[in-house]
C-alpha cells in the first residue's frame, strides 16, 4: 500500500514516527507493507519531527491526490477550504481518504461521505475526535448492539486544562489561558478552544455516529468557558461539584439534542475527575449502560494512533461497505433548546437586604421551579453577596424566564450566571 500524506506537521510527523517504530507489529496485524511514498509540505527547508528518508516531498498537494501510484491519502493539513478540495479530488480519483480534520467532517461531512460512496471509496475520520481515544470505533463496533441514549464528553484538552488549573490552584481564567498558550495547548487565537467551537465540531461527529443522524454542526448549542469566575469554582466545590466543559448529545423521544457548555458534575462521577489536557467520553447504551473512554485527546503520536488505526482498517478491508462508508445518515428532528430539561446552577450578586431572597424565591415559585440548594457568601464592604442556587429539573425556557425576572430586581448588581448541572445518570 502506497500512502501519500498531506501535511507533515505535528500529526503527519507523528504518523511517520509511529509507522516506523511499530512497523513490525503493524505488518503482523495486516500482512501488508505500508509505505509512505509522498508527502506535501508548505516549506521544504523546515525542520521536522520525523525522518523524511524515502519520502518524495512536494509543495504542491495536488501532486499527491492526482498521483496514480498512491492508494490512500492522509489529509492532515486542517482547514475547510483547500482541504475540502483536495479530499474531493482524491475521492474522485478513486483513493481512500483518512483525515483528522474535525471541522471538515462536521461542516462538509455529509457531501464528502456521499461522494465517497458514489466513487466506491472510504472516508474515515477516527482521529477527528478525542485524539488517541478510539471513540468512533467503539460506538460503531463495540457498542453496535446498543441504542445509544447519551454521549457526554470532555473533548477539548485546552478548555479542560484551564478549568482544572482554575479549580485546583484558584487561578483566574486569563492567567491560565496565557500559560496554556505558552505551553502550546492553546493557539495564539484561542477562540475555537475556549468558546466551544472545537468541541462542537467533535460533538457533531459523535452524534452522527451515535445516533445515525446527519452531520449538522449548526444545530449544536455552544457556550464557552471565558465567563467562568473564581466564585463559580468556589461555589461548585463547596456544593460538591466540579465544573467541566462538556459536549453532550442525547436522543429523547426521537429527537436529538446537542450542546456544548460549562457543566457542574457531581465530584463522585469519574468524568468530574478528568483533569489537565486529558479527554474522556461517557457513552450510555440501553443494553450495556454507561461506559467511559479516557486518554490523550491530542498530541502527535496519540492522534497518529487513530489515523493509523483507520489505515489498518482500510488495508485489512474491515471497513463497513454500508451506505456512506460508515452509516446511512438520516435527517432527524432536533430538540428545541428552550425545551431541553436540566438542573441548573445560578449565581447572583445581590444587595444583602431583608426580603431579597424571599423575592427571588417567589419568582422561582411563580415559574414552577423548585430549589434544591442555596448558598450565600458576603463579599464586600457594601454588603453585597454572592448567592448560589441549584434548582431541580426544569425546562430551559422556564429558567431563562425566571432569571430575566430576577435580573430586573433592584438588588441585583450584575448579570446572573446560569450553568447546566448534569448528574450523568
Stretches where pLDDT is under 50 for at least 5 consecutive residues are none
**CATH class type of the largest domain:** Alpha Beta
Shape: elongated
Number of helices: 14
- Beginning-to-end CA distance, first to last residue: 46 Å
Structural write-up:
The protein has 14 helices and 17 strands. The protein has helices at 10-21, 23-30, 62-65, 82-92, 102-118, 135-142, 157-169, 173-182, 191-194, 197-211, 230-238, 300-315, 356-366, 396-407, and strands at 2-6, 35-40, 56-58, 72-75, 96-99, 123-124, 148-154, 221-222, 241-252, 255-266, 278-285, 289-296, 341-351, 371-378, 384-391, 394-395, 417-421. By secondary structure, it is α/β, with parallel strands linked by helices. Strand 11 (278-285) and strand 12 form a beta hairpin. The mean pLDDT is 93. The protein has three domains: 2-128, Rossmann fold (3-Layer(aba) Sandwich); 135-297, Dihydrodipicolinate Reductase, domain 2 (2-Layer Sandwich); 341-421, 2-Layer Sandwich (Alpha-Beta Plaits). The strands form two sheets. Strands 7, 8, 9, 10, 11, 12, 13, 14, 15, 16 and 17 form an eleven-stranded mixed sheet that branches. Strands 3-2-1-4-5-6 form a six-stranded parallel sheet, with helices on both faces. 47% of the residues are buried. Helix 4 (82-92) runs parallel beside helix 5, helix 7 (157-169) packs across helix 8 (173-182) and helix 13 (356-366) runs antiparallel to helix 14.
